[in-house]
Fold:
Amino acid sequence: MKILSHFAILLTTTASILNVGLGNAEDAKSQLSVHEIRAILNSIPPYLPGSEVSAEIDVFGSTSMDALAHGWASGFNKFHPKAKVVVSDEGSETVFDRLAKSPSSLGMLSRPVVEADLARLKQLGLKQPIAVMVAREGLGVFVNESNPIQSISHDQFTSLFCIANGDQKSTPMTWSAVGVEGDMGEEPVEVIARTPISGTQAFLKNFVFQGQTMREPAEAFDSNVEVVKELESTKNGVAICGLRCGGHSLRLVGLLNGDTTIPGDDHSVLMGRYPLIRPLTLVLDVGQDSDQARATREFVRYALHQAGQSQDILAGFFPFDPPTLLAEIAKLENSSAEAGN
Structure:
């Protein structure tokens, strides 16, 4: 009876978190597609603790995932009140050195993690590193509201952020090159970006622009908040950041597919129509068997299940489709079993 009672409390807590997540989403300015989100969340298994956790869990990396990690920590503590989750955001590309020093910890990267990344971690001493996708984020091209541009083609998108010939120094570009007329058309394009150690810049360089030489930014910042603030005061600026990062004085530029503008809304993201999507990824070493390592694995289990995925919504991100999430859950469980943990 005690066990059944315990699980009843856990299930009630999970439902409460889910309802709060959806309620807040409905009240947000940019409404989530509540019906679609609810259908996804209802298809995800509820989180049931595999074991009691009381160790400290060290989570670090992506600044874009900072709010999400804190949301997970708060929700996780409802199930594991003795656990302590410490979150630090220093940039995605700092994860590798941090994991080498503390292999029982958890790294956050706001970009895909490829086999070369896992091989690098093994070279740094990790036993069996794996990458688990836990959420997805739509990125958008933003300009100051004074810029009249409404939409851009794929070629225009590339020309705004990349140099045509990578062997040449970045040459000034005016807004007239992408069809802007009037006084703004004569203004130089000023790219406002994240710093090189951010997952955002790594994702853009290696996965969106596939190694093309990107334009030197006029300013580079550690966080999306700073990027948005700078763009609000830079009339000729342009930046790429999360769809939820836009402010009142910014405009989201539409992305063209032929003659059709693909809206940067929730439905397009959830249905897979919106093209500028990146995964948010957790990296851990399932080969570690310390108390901290076991706590880290349990934390990732939480993030992948229903209660954790509702935190994705609260933080302004999107859950993956159920088949992808179930595959990531299976990856974590199977890899841990293979490692004897």
Remarks:
- Residues 138-277 form a domain with the D-Maltodextrin-Binding Protein; domain 2 fold (CATH 3.40.190.10).
